[in-house]
Input
Amino acid sequence: MGEPILYEVRDRVATVTLHRPDKRNALDAALVTALRTALDAAAADEAVRVVVLTGAGKAFSAGADLAALEALQSATALDNLADSEHLAGLFEQIYLHPKPVIARVNGHAIAGGCGLAAVCDLSIATEQARFGFTEVRIGFVPAIVMVFVLRKLGEAAARDLLLRGALITAEEAAAVGLINRVVPTGTLEATVDELAREMATQTSRSAVALTKKMLAQVPGMGLREALAYATHLNAFARSTPDCQAGIAAFLNKTDPPWRIP
Output
């Protein structure tokens, strides 16, 4: 058995590939652990500015592994809780990752796999991909992904996806905001490469990290709390080296230090 993920860093971009093509990149404990380790490595590596998440073979991720589903029937309550916490930690890690995470959805993204595509900052999919939270069709509850889907789509769209459990096309997924863009299969890799390069060479690392932090915090706040938080973050951002360098570059009509032509 090979490694459950592949990890490569090139031109400021870390590409993390789910590498169980024979299992349609289904999620099991080993894959989740390997993926969390890779995300930690990308967060700690100052050479990495953007993370791309994709799948090997024809699928992005088919959700839970069949063996993992069989194990549910005999697992103890404590085992199930530990496994759920491990998976929830993965989704939270992607959502709160200090660097932009782009999903390159090369094929079907189902159940937990659909959640992975949804929780990334940006998701670009091949036109052949299908998406869906099919948990209710096997008597399961899409509990963990629901937290993020509600934040991303709002209640009406989330109810339609989560309660029906149906598969939808990539175009339909883009129309409701589950993903950002749909491209022909032959152009998927080049499209994501271009987007990743743009973000890796044209944006400030610290500004992106602070923006992501605020995006995660503000939706749960009331108006006054959100404005107070924004005011403090705005003031803090002004004192960061990137902000000072960026403003100086703007005033002097030069490129900031992070920009690469």
Remarks:
- The chain has a mean pLDDT of 93.
- The two ends are 42 Å apart (CA to CA).
- The first strand starts at residue 5 and ends at 10.
- Residues 77-95 form the longest helix (19 residues).
